[in-house]
Design a protein that fits this description.
- By secondary structure, the chain is mostly helical.
- The protein has a single domain, classed as MetI-like (MetI-like fold), CATH 1.10.3720.
- It is built from 12 helices and 2 strands; from the N terminus they run H-H-E-E-H-H-H-H-H-H-H-H-H-H.
- Strands 1-2 form a two-stranded antiparallel ribbon.
- The protein is globular, with a radius of gyration of 22 Å.
- One of its GO terms (biological process) is transmembrane transport.
- InterPro entries: MetI-like, MetI-like_sf.
- It is a multi-pass membrane protein.
């Protein structure tokens, strides 16, 4: 069974990493003409062009946007999961369906509709982008934390109450440590929603918030600039990959 798990892990890693090989080669190539299997001239022109096009600034905006969405989405998802788990809400199925609606509805249609509403309300474009993406992240954060709450051993919290701990202490010293892996997973999912978004940032942001996906999409729409596109693509892939590996390691450390 262990050998099968290792083989599955290697297969999944290869499935994900192999498509990155051409990107790595293109990002390190100055000249690569067909039918050559490898670049004829190596260099960093793609990274220089990506930086000159505003790649670092766009990456900073993407990181800030993703961080804000991760914090807000995780906090609101935790509140929604706790309310649904506590059984204090009426019509919990209806509320769950509403929370899952952003996943079922077409993103472009939702973005266009909300853009009109936000414009009429006079909401600044960056604030509108954060609000819409936080709502888009709620299904993932709520589900991840609700599953964790449902599977959590309630005995630890009951013992802490019997020993005189207040509800705030029980939550901070007992429940939160038990939920830490789920909280990290929920934060990662919300981070990915904010980091990778294109449609909402383009539509609601109206060009005022140029993130890395927008810059990458603009560069990829042309031809003949493969090194720059590859450099931007790697810049968009590596941070969330690093965050996913970090969360996996933290979760493994908690459970191991």
């Amino acid at each position: 069974m262990t050998a099968l798990r290792r083989l599955t892990g290697v297969g999944l890693a290869a499935w994900f990493l192999l498509p990155l090989v051409p990107l790595v080669l293109w990002a390190a190539a100055d000249v690569w003409r067909a039918p050559a299997a490898l670049p004829q001239q190596w260099g960093s022109s793609g990274w220089s062009a990506a930086a000159a096009a505003g790649g670092w600034a766009a990456a900073g905006r993407s990181l800030g946007l993703a961080a804000v969405v991760a914090v807000l989405g995780t906090l609101l998802g935790a509140a929604a999961a706790a309310a649904l788990d506590g059984g204090r809400l009426r019509a919990p199925r209806t509320i769950t369906a509403l929370l899952l609606a952003p996943v079922a509805l077409p993103p472009l249609a939702v973005a266009l509709g909300l853009d009109v509403l936000l414009l009429r309300l006079g909401v600044p474009a960056p604030v509108g982008v954060v609000a819409v993406l936080t709502v888009a992240a709620l299904p993932y954060t709520t589900y991840a934390l609700r599953v964790a709450l449902a599977g959590m051993d309630r005995g630890y919290a009951e013992e802490a109450r019997l020993l005189g701990a207040t509800p705030a202490v029980v939550w901070r010293r007992v429940r939160l440590p038990l939920l830490a892996p789920a909280v990290a997973t929920a934060a990662l999912l919300a981070f990915l929603v904010g980091w990778s978004d294109y449609v909402v940032t383009l539509t609601v942001g109206g060009g005022q918030l140029v993130t890395l996906p927008l810059l990458l999409g603009s560069a990829a729409s042309g031809v003949g600039d493969e090194p720059t596109v590859a450099a931007l693509a790697l810049s968009a892939v590596l941070p969330p990959l690093a965050a996913a590996l970090l969360v996996a390691r933290l979760a493994r450390g908690r459970t191991g």
